[in-house]
Amino acid sequence: MVLAQVSNLIDWHLIMKTDIHPKFYHSVVTCSCGNVFHTGATKPTMRVELCGKCHPFYTGEQRVVDTQGRIERMKKRYSLDS
Fold this sequence. Notes:
alpha+beta, Rhinovirus 14, subunit 4, three-stranded mixed beta sheet, 4 helices
C-alpha cells in the first residue's frame, strides 16, 4: 500500500498524546505589503515583513532593504564608488 493511502486510514488524533501539544489556530497572517492570508499556526494572528507576493525571489524584482544606512557606511569606509 502507498504511504498516502495508509496515512488516510490512520486516525492521527487517536495516536497523538493528549495535553502536550500547543493549541492550534486557524491563523490570519498579515504582511507589511498589505497581503493577508490564512494558515494553521500556534498563534491566532501573525505579522510578517515579507510574503510570497512581495519577496524578491518570487517577484523577480531585485531590491535592497537598508534601514540603517549600512550600505552607505560600507561604501564610505572602503571608498567604493556608487
